[in-house]
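Run log // design_07
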C-alpha cells in the first residue's frame, strides 16, 4: 500500500557533517493564535531531562495558541505523549499507554492524540502506530516540535492523520515559547544531539548531531530565570563537556560554567558529563564557584576495558578510574553518581566482576543501573549475545545490592548534620512532610512549618537511609 507520509530513517539520521548548524528564530504564525481558545491539553512525558524540557516547549506552543493545561488527561482536547526509545521497556510502556487512549477517543472523537519524542524517530514505531494505533492523529519527531501548531491546525482542518518526522542533523531554534513546569528549578538546554555513538545507544540517531547554543543565548536565559526568582538551573546536554566544540570557537564548557555562575543563580547543576573531555577548565570552574553544586554524574557503563571498547566509550577502565580519582581528590565532599549497563552482548562473568570492582573502587553515592536492551539500528544490535536473560537479571540484582551498600555508607556522613535543602514542596508520600534536595543532590524528607516551594532552608538530618535522608526544619 502506498504511504502518503514520509517515514523516518535511522540510517539517514546517522549522517554527520562538520558544518555549523543553522540558527533560526521561531515566531508563531498569527493564524494559529486563538485556535485553542476554550480548549485544553495534557502532556505525558517519558525519559530523560531533554524530554522534560521538550515537553515544556510543547506546552509553551500550545499556551501561545490559546490552549490551557487540563487537570486530567481524559478531559483534554489534545493529548501529547513525549516518548523515550532508550530501552525496549520504555517503548512497551508507551505503546500500552497509547492503546489505553482509545477509550478516551471513543468518548470524545474530536480529541487529538499526538506522539512525539525519540520513538517517533524510528521507522518501525511510525509504521506500527500508523497501522495498529488508529487513534493517533499526529506523529512528530524531535526535530519537528515547532511544527506542532501547524500539524494541529491541519488535523483540525482536514481530519487526516499527520506524520512529520525529519531524520536530519538538526538546527538550533531560539525564541520558542516555553511553559516551565516548575517555578523554582529550570532545565536549560546548552546543546542538542550527540556525536558519541556509543554502540548500544539510539540517542545519536533520534536527536541528531551535537550542536551548541550560542553562549549569549544561554546566559540571557539564565539571567531571565534569576529575574523570575528561579533558584536552580540544570544545564542540559547528552554530553555537556563537548559544549562549544561544534562552534569552532575558543570557549568550552568550563568557560560556560564560570559565566553561568556569574549570574548568581543560587544553584547550578549539569547533566550529563561523558568522561571524555572532562578537562581542567571544568574542574577549576566547579572548584571556584560555590553556586556550582557539589555533585557529578559520570557514567561508567562498564568496568571492563574490553566491553568499554565494544561499547565505543572511548576510555578504558584505567582511564575512567584515573579521572574519577582525580575528581574525588580535587573536589572533596562532592557526591558522585553513575550509569551502568549489565549484560552487554557476550559480557563474561569476569567482565561483570570488573564492573563490581569498579563500583567498589568508586563507592558511588548512587547508580542508575540497566540491563542492556537491544536497539534496532545501533551497531550493538548486530553483536552476538549468548548471555541469557536470567544471568543478566541476577547480575543486575547483585549490582544493585552493592550500589545500595555504598549509597547507604555515603549517606552516613549526613547523620546529625544541618544541610541546606531547596524545597520542592510537600512530599509525594506524606502530606505533612516536605521534600527537597541538598547541594549534593540528596533527597531529604523533613517536617516543619511555614515552608514554601523554592525556599532554601536548613534541615537537621535525623535518619539516614540508602536513597534518602529524613530530618527536621531548623528554625533560624
Ligand atoms: N540498553 C540499556 N541501557 C541503555 N542506556 C542507553 N542505551 C541503553 C541500552 N540500549 C543507558 C545508559 C545511559 C542511560 C541514559 O541509559 O546507561 O547512560
Ligand atoms: Fe548515548 Fe553515549 Fe551519546 Fe550518552 S554519550 S547519549 S550513552 S551515545
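design_07 sequence
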Amino acid at each position: 500500500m502506498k504511504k502518503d507520509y514520509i517515514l523516518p530513517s535511522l540510517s539517514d539520521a546517522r549522517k554527520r557533517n562538520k558544518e555549523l548548524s543553522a540558527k533560526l528564530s521561531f515566531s508563531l504564525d498569527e493564524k494559529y493564535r486563538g485556535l485553542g481558545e476554550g480548549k485544553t491539553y495534557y502532556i505525558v512525558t517519558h525519559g530523560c531531562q531533554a524530554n522534560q524540557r521538550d515537553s515544556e516547549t510543547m506546552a509553551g506552543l500550545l499556551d501561545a495558541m490559546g490552549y490551557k493545561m487540563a487537570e486530567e488527561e481524559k478531559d483534554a482536547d489534545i493529548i501529547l505523549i513525549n516518548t523515550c526509545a532508550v530501552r525496549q521497556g520504555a517503548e512497551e510502556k508507551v505503546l500500552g499507554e497509547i492503546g489505553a487512549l482509545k477509550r478516551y477517543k471513543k468518548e470524545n472523537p474530536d480529541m487529538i492524540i499526538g506522539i512525539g519524542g525519540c520513538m517517533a524517530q524510528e521507522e518501525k514505531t511510525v509504521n506500527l502506530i500508523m497501522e495498529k494505533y488508529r487513534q493517533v492523529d499526529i506523529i512528530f519527531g524531535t526535530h519537528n516540535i515547532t511544527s506542532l501548531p501547524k500539524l494541529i491546525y491541519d488535523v483540525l482542518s482536514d481530519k487526516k492523520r499527520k506524520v512529520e518526522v525529519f531524520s536530519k542533523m538538526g538546527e538550533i531554534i531560539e525564541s520558542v515559547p516555553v511553559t516551565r513546569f516548575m517555578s523554582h528549578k529550570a532545565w536549560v538546554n546548552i546543546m542538542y544531539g550527540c556525536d558519541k555513538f556509543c554502540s548500544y545507544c539510539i540517542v545519536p540517531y533520534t536527536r541528531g548531531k551535537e550542536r551548541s547554543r550560542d553562549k549569549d543565548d544561554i546566559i540571557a536565559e539564565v539571567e531571565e530565570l534569576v529575574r523570575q526568582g528561579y533558584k536552580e538551573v540544570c544545564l542540559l546536554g547528552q554530553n555537556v563537556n563537548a559544549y562549544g566544540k561544534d562552534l569552532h570557537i575558543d570557549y568550552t564548557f568550563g568557560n560556560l560554567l564560570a559565566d553561568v555562575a556569574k549570574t548568581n543563580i543560587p544553584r547550578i547543576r549539569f547533566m550529563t558529563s561523558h568522561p571524555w573531555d572532562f578537562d581542567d577548565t571544568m574542574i577549576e570552574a566547579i572548584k571556584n564557584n560555590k553556586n556550582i553544586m557539589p555533585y557529578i554524574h559520570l557514567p561508567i557503563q562498564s568496568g571492563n576495558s574490553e566491553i568499554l571498547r565494544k561499547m565505543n566509550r572511548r576510555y578504558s577502565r584505567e582511564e575512567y578510574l584515573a579521572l574519577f580519582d582525580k575528581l574525588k581528590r580535587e573536589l572533596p565532599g562532592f557526591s558522585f553518581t553513575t550509569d551502568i549497563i549489565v549484560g552487554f552482548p557476550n559480557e563474561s562473568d569476569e567482565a561483570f566482576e570488573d564492573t563490581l570492582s569498579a563500583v567498589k573502587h568508586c563507592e558511588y553515592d548512587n547508580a542508575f543501573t540497566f540491563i542492556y536492551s537491544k536497539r534496532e539500528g545501533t551497531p550493538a544490535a548486530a553483536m552476538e549475545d549468548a548471555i541469557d536473560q536470567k544471568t543478566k537479571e541476577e547480575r543486575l540484582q547483585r549490582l544493585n545490592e552493592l550500589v545500595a551498600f555504598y549509597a547507604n555508607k555515603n549517606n552516613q556522613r549526613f547523620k546529625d548534620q544541618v544541610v541546606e535543602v531547596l524545597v520542592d514542596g510537600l512530599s509525594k508520600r506524606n502530606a505533612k512532610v516536605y521534600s527537597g534536595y541538598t547541594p549534593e543532590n540528596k533527597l531529604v524528607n523533613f517536617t516543619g512549618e511555614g515552608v514554601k516551594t523554592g525556599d532554601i532552608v536548613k534541615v537537621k538530618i535525623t535518619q539516614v537511609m540508602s536513597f534518602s535522608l529524613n530530618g527536621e526544619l531548623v528554625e533560624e
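The mean pLDDT is 96.
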